[in-house]
Amino acid sequence: MGALERLFQPRGVAIVGASTDPVRVGGAPVKALADYGYAGQVYPVNPKYDEIHGLKCYASVADIAGPCDLAIIAVAAAATPDVLRACGEKKIPYAVVLSGGYRESGKDGATLEAEVRQVLAETGIRMIGPNCQGVINLTDRMYATFGAIAAEPDMRAGRIAMSFQSGGFGFTIALLCEQQGVGFRYLVSGGNETDIKTPELLDAFLDDSETKVAFAMIEGVDDGRALQRVGRRGLSIGKPVIVWKIGNSETGARAAASHTANMTGQYDIYQAAFRQAGIVEARDVEQLQDLFFAFEAGRLPAGNRVAVITITGGSGIAFADRAVEGGLDLPSFEPATTEALEKIIPVFGSTGNPVDTTANLFNQVENFTSAVSHVINDPNVDQLAVLMASVSGPTAEAAAHAVVGAAEASGKPVIVAWSARRERASDAYKVLEDAGIPIVPTPVRAADAAATLSEFAARQRRLAGKTEMTITPVDVTLPDGLGALDEVAGKALLAAYDIPVTEDRIVHLGDDPACIAEGLSYPLIAKVLSPDITHKTDVGGVRANLGDAEALTEAVAEIVLAARHARPDAQIDGVIVSEMVSGAEVLAGVINDAVFGPTIAVGLGGIFTEVLRDITYRIAPFDADEAHAMLGELRARALFDGVRGGPALDVEALAEALSALSRLAWDHRGRLAELDVNPLFVRPKGQGIVAADALVVLK
Amino acid sequence: MGALERLFQPRGVAIVGASTDPVRVGGAPVKALADYGYAGQVYPVNPKYDEIHGLKCYASVADIAGPCDLAIIAVAAAATPDVLRACGEKKIPYAVVLSGGYRESGKDGATLEAEVRQVLAETGIRMIGPNCQGVINLTDRMYATFGAIAAEPDMRAGRIAMSFQSGGFGFTIALLCEQQGVGFRYLVSGGNETDIKTPELLDAFLDDSETKVAFAMIEGVDDGRALQRVGRRGLSIGKPVIVWKIGNSETGARAAASHTANMTGQYDIYQAAFRQAGIVEARDVEQLQDLFFAFEAGRLPAGNRVAVITITGGSGIAFADRAVEGGLDLPSFEPATTEALEKIIPVFGSTGNPVDTTANLFNQVENFTSAVSHVINDPNVDQLAVLMASVSGPTAEAAAHAVVGAAEASGKPVIVAWSARRERASDAYKVLEDAGIPIVPTPVRAADAAATLSEFAARQRRLAGKTEMTITPVDVTLPDGLGALDEVAGKALLAAYDIPVTEDRIVHLGDDPACIAEGLSYPLIAKVLSPDITHKTDVGGVRANLGDAEALTEAVAEIVLAARHARPDAQIDGVIVSEMVSGAEVLAGVINDAVFGPTIAVGLGGIFTEVLRDITYRIAPFDADEAHAMLGELRARALFDGVRGGPALDVEALAEALSALSRLAWDHRGRLAELDVNPLFVRPKGQGIVAADALVVLK
User: ipTM score of the complex?
Assistant: First the structure.
């Protein structure tokens, strides 16, 4: 039995606080459970009534006779803990608490929510809500819900499972999708997510063999890594986890904070975490519909090469534009394919990719069938889009059969863009739908869906080639206490993780700088060494381009003087002297994200980070392969390939260093408050990287 | 009478090549014109028949008795010129040539197309097509068309006029939009656009008082400036010109080239030209629908401040995310508004912006009405979005009345996001539709449409504040002949347009460089002066950072030597000596775009242009205000505001220089093959700019 199975498929449901008014919170589920086809037992509970909506009404939970796996609790917040205790005594394993009045409503509510949490711990009850709109299992017509959705008895059942934090908007999305033909299996409004949270729901959706796609709309989660785990699991079993995250603009986040109590971390980091874990991001309802259809079909492309067949040239052009934007490639066909197409496609059509069969081909549908078959079986083609324009009637049905036949014979994914009025082509629609061929209304949306399918498949291939990342603990001990480490100690930590650092010499107060620097090649750089001074430049504590011993000696003296002047309180341990390093300047750092924990950020130095905000993120730890993907997201990525005839840089070494930094961040997540490697120089290919400074702050 | 009026509203229509088969090219329009409600005369012409579809059939055009403003020509390509001649004799002013077989089909077709053009010139006939799917006036049920659309007798008439080059895909889009409630007035498939082209059609749409929105789908146009003119005209009269351009990716453009003979210039330049002329760009069908509804409503916001009222918090958050992304601001309300809202909105709602009235407010609809009214009348609010989720029934109707009332009283634009099933809320939909309130299905789409409305209005305000740009010719004569000017002549041309250039001295062969440089401040830069050497660095012809007279003298000698060695054939006139300039390095240039003519490109120097391709365009000429808008599109725009504590740069001077360069490019459009100002240094605010080099190539 999968996780939470009895929550979704209860043998009996109690409605505590049942009402005779079918539009009230306590009345709507009674009516829906009684009337919409739910086959289990329904137990209204309310001491005021003997019967509600033709069902025997129980005075208390204790009186229920018969199997009961779920209690819908619709009483006032203050009465809920006692109801939960009664459910615990009755061994009811799941509760859905609909009413509000908890932490979203202020301090008293928060206290009540803590009490609820305590009762759950004592009784072992697992709970959805509070402050939610409930749970629906459309397959079994189990409506544990109220509001607009409870007045929709005919909602289509299907294979998409959806959870959401915002009840009303979640159901609005579900209704919109349903109107376009999407069938849902489960719909869950999690509300305050006091107990059962989005990642656990998604995990349960993956467990369920009837569910093909797991979707969540979130404002935020409190455990980002749990979300990533479920994304990776979905990727590995080929069931996509789709997430639509809202509350990303400052205004939106402010509204989200006033709306529920869910965390909304930095959107950039969420997006990076989604990519890293193979979570598919959605941003509006139409996109969701298309992805539901495309993924429900259950076929993934072996590569990013898409062929497109149109009967109207313009639609092929619009498709091509968007497909290329989405990272797809429109390959040329093998000569044999082209030759076969030339025999059947009129001269004013096109045998290239996009293929324009022209509408004439529908006059001899066997030719259209043959064209589709030749194209999909071309070895250069990983998936196919067929743009059917508005064709209807018997022609459409014949074309639909051609598409279905070709798809089934080839096993490759096929998507159809088609906009005939349903009443003019109902047979043809049915042919495609029965065969599980996704249909979207426009070529642009077909291209978007095909691109997402391809990206998901590419991530899956990358994951499949990977063994679990083994993290060998590194033998390094951090000093006790809070605050910043000095540069020497900071670099030692990097070095322990095999991140190359500059060769540094320490000039202690009173030493002869020239002697200490013996063996280093001028020009040199000198920097004040002090655990108390984290921004050395600000205190005049850095002197670069020192050409000879004399300049060095002078600089060391000046640095100490300047630092003492600026920060008389600081402990000054001396001056670090190192060779000047050159290469492309990179900043790398560790962020302790509230939602995802230790996270690595990287960007190119100077204006790229400061002006263009060209920064990319990954949740730690990760391997070098993931670091390459991370670097690939930088807009200025091409800089690593060499600029103005310059040499290509050692991206491999940078990727290794980022992976090492991510392991460091993970190992010391309990102690690291902050870590900045700035600058980190990337040298020409083969010459590696070197960290020229490190700021480590402990907590 | 507006342009092309009799094309769209003919008093009689001849169908030459009329067929008795209603699915054939010559048969479909006969049937459609006879059966769908067209009130004018219909004249089938075909010597083989006496009657077609119950109508008298004429043996030839000459036999037609009665008014005839339009001839639909459905005969083979070779027979078309003679038919056109006959139409000319009969004084039929307009022809729609449906058949293909012209330049899209090869050389013979091109010859035929030239002949057609010749006949048009002789007869004065204006023509749509050839190789097109015809013209429809849905208001008057005038279907001069064939194919799928000719089998749609019930298409809703409305106020959107649409032209497209790709016949099949254009009609597909029209049908999709129509299924969502869009009403079209005119639909025109322009085909090869041999005579009447997209800009002329758009212009005629603007002329037509019944048309509220002019839309074109294009693969390309041959006169980009004509498109801009019609965009500006639409902006000034408040009738938006919307364009969806396809064929933008390399693959898409290749497909477009094989599809029609239309130009597809560089997409970046098209997009810049759209922005410059106030043309609204669309990229898919759903977006088009929303824009049609939003613009058809006829109200524009006075600023970018949007308020949003929701009954489900999540939808407000999703709206806010996208609205902010689209450049909208969600302002705070005046205290009086907040106070009023606090009295009616439950505590678990939100009185901020987004306003969350909660679904409870529908229980007392007068409170909802009051909330909507307070919010829309807040002086900080320019437009309002109401997110109605899936509410249906009498509540929905009451809410709809509230929205209509508030919109009418305030005169501000209102958009509604609503997803109730139509059959559950038909009365409410009707209330909104009758009042012309745009309805879209999702909050995200509402935000997109509101942002586009706001952007259009902002452009309109900018245009309204402008007087026509007067270009005073500059008294400068370009030398005769082809090829490159030397740097001195190039800079002189810039200087004639008041673009500051470096103070240069010319060291002729044999001169003493130090004497010539007298009065300049070292360090200096020396560059070879030769009309034959356009890339001076490549031949060792540039030496910078010359600290004193000695270094200068040495450098001059070396430059001449190096240049002679590298290019023994080149005429070397000496060496240019100038002061070193500093500032932010910018590249500015003139592109002679095939579609738009002289166009200015600008980007920041170095990697910004080379690696990040951070370049922006404007069609010449333009004023400094437009140049500011142009610079605002650079991703690295913030660099001009000063970096790392550096001073803000003189963007005003740069904008003036770009405007001057654009006038230069326009004045000399007949002679300029190429013009590059590289580098152009932008100095701190108040210190202006200076062009340090100029390459001018004449044609």
Answer: 0.93
